[in-house]
C-alpha cells in the first residue's frame, strides 16, 4: 500500500477547511441529495463526500457506508486530491497503490473507486465526491463528465458556506465565521476551565494607504497583514478580519507569556515585511487584548468589547506620542 503524499498547499487547504467549519458537523441534506443522486445514477452501493483532514478523511455525506471517517494513510481520496483529474481505480486488486489497502482487503471491500476532487472557491482541493463498488467496473468519458457535474454541485455548496463564513479578500474568517467558531471555542474554554485571550488589531493610518497609493495597494496591505497573523499564530487559534482594517484572534488555552511571544513574533515579522517590501509606507497596527482565566470566565461579546476598548486606548496613546515634539527628533 502507498500512503498518499501531502499536497504542497496543505496548510492553506486545512486552514480553508477550518474556516468553512464543516468538519464534524451534522449530516446536511444539501450534500446528502448529491450523494443519493450519484448512487442512483451510477447504480453503485457507496457514494461519499469525503474531506481530507490532517490525519483522517471525514465524510460530510455517506451513502451506503456506516463509518464517518477513516485514517488518511489508507484513504483513496488522499491520493485523489493531488490533482484536478478524476482518480480512477477500476480494480483495486490490480493497483499496487491499493491492492493490500485494509479498505480493500477488509470492509468495506473496495474494488472500484472513482473520486473527483472538490475545491473551495479559493482553489484548494478539500476532498472528493467519490464512488465505491465491491466489484471491478469500467468508467467511460460520459461517466466522468457526469461525476464532474455532480462534484460541481458539491463545490457550489462549499461556495455558499464560504460566502457566509469567509472574508474573500484575505481568506480569513469574516465576522460571522468568527462569532460562530469563537463562540464554540469560548464555551469549550469555559467548560474546561482553560484560559483564553482575545486580541483586537486595527491597522494604523490605513485610510492614508488607500488615499495615497490606491485601493489595490490597500488590499495588498490587508492581505499581507492577514498572512502575518496566519504565520505568527497557531493553527488552532481563531483568526478573522471582522471589519475594514480590523482583525481579531482568539488564542485558547494560552497563558500571558505565550500571547506575549506571539505578539513579539508578529512585530518582528511585520518589521521584516516593511523592510523587504519597501512600499513607501510602513504597515503598523494598534492592538488590545482581553483575557479570561479559569476562575473568571467571560462571554465572547465581553472579550470583544474589552479588547476593542484596549486597542482604542493604545491607538490614542500612539497617536498622542506621534504628535509630541520628542517623537519628531
Ligand atoms: N483597500 C481596502 N480598503 C478598505 C477595505 N475595507 C475598508 N477599507 C478602508 O479602510 C479604511 C479604514 O478606515 P479607518 O479605520 O479610519 O483607517 P485608519 O486610517 O487606519 O484610521 P486609524 O485606525 O485611526 O489609524 C477606510 O478608508 C475604508 O475605506 C478593503 O477591503 N480594501
Task: Classify the beta-strand content into a percent band.
Answer: 15-25%
Give the terminus-to-terminus CA distance: 68 Å
Helix content: 40-55%
- Number of contiguous helices: 11
Largest sheet: 6 strands, antiparallel
Describe this structure in words.
- This is Diguanylate cyclase (GGDEF)-like protein.
- The protein has 329 residues and is of the alpha+beta class.
- The protein folds into 2 domains: 10-165, Beta-Lactamase (2-Layer Sandwich), CATH 3.30.450.40; 175-328, Reverse transcriptase/Diguanylate cyclase domain (Alpha-Beta Plaits, 2-Layer Sandwich).
- It contains 11 helices and 10 strands.
- It has helices at 10-20, 29-42, 77-80, 102-105, 141-165, 175-192, 206-213, 215-232, 256-277, 300-323, 325-328; strands at 46-52, 56-63, 69-71, 87-89, 112-119, 125-133, 196-203, 238-243, 246-252, 285-292.
- The strands form 2 sheets. It has a 6-stranded antiparallel β-sheet. A 4-stranded antiparallel β-sheet has the order 8-9-7-10, with helices on both faces.
- Strand 8 (238-243) and strand 9 form a beta hairpin.
- Helix 8 runs antiparallel to helix 9 (256-277).
- The model has no long low-confidence stretch (mean pLDDT 94).
- The structure holds guanosine-5'-triphosphate (GTP).
Amino acid at each position: 500500500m502507498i500512503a498518499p503524499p501531502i499536497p504542497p498547499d496543505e496548510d492553506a487547504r486545512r486552514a480553508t477547511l477550518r474556516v468553512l467549519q464543516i468538519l464534524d458537523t451534522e449530516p446536511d441534506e444539501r450534500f446528502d441529495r448529491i450523494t443519493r443522486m450519484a448512487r442512483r445514477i451510477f447504480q453503485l452501493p457507496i457514494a461519499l463526500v469525503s474531506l481530507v483532514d490532517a490525519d483522517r478523511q471525514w465524510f460530510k455525506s455517506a451513502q451506503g457506508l456506516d463509518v464517518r471517517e477513516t485514517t488518511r494513510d489508507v484513504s483513496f481520496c488522499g491520493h485523489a486530491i493531488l490533482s484536478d483529474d478524476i482518480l480512477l481505480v477500476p480494480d483495486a486488486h490490480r493497483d499496487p497503490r491499493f491492492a493490500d489497502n485494509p479498505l480493500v482487503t477488509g470492509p468495506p471491500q473496495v474494488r472500484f473507486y472513482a473520486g473527483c476532487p472538490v475545491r473551495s472557491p479559493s482553489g484548494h482541493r478539500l476532498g472528493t465526491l467519490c464512488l465505491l463498488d465491491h466489484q471491478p467496473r469500467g468508467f467511460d468519458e460520459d461517466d466522468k463528465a457526469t461525476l464532474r457535474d455532480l462534484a460541481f454541485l458539491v463545490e457550489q455548496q462549499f461556495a455558499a458556506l464560504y460566502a457566509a463564513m469567509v472574508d474573500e479578500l484575505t481568506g480569513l474568517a469574516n465576522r460571522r465565521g468568527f462569532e460562530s467558531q469563537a463562540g464554540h471555542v469560548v464555551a469549550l474554554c469555559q467548560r474546561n476551565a482553560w484560559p483564553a485571550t482575545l486580541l483586537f488589531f486595527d491597522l494604523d493610518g490605513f485610510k492614508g494607504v488607500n488615499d495615497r497609493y490606491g485601493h489595490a495597494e490597500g488590499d495588498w496591505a490587508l492581505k499581507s497583514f492577514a498572512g502575518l497573523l496566519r504565520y505568527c499564530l497557531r493553527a488552532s487559534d481563531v483568526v478573522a478580519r471582522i471589519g475594514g482594517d480590523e482583525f481579531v484572534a482568539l488564542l485558547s488555552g494560552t497563558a500571558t507569556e505565550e500571547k506575549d511571544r506571539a505578539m513579539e513574533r508578529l512585530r518582528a515579522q511585520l518589521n521584516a515585511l516593511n523592510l523587504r517590501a519597501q512600499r513607501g509606507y510602513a504597515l503598523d497596527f494598534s492592538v488590545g487584548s482581553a483575557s479570561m482565566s479559569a476562575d473568571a470566565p467571560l462571554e465572547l461579546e465581553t472579550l470583544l468589547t474589552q479588547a476593542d476598548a484596549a486597542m482604542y486606548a493604545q491607538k490614542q496613546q500612539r497617536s498622542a506620542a506621534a504628535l509630541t515634539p520628542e517623537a519628531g527628533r
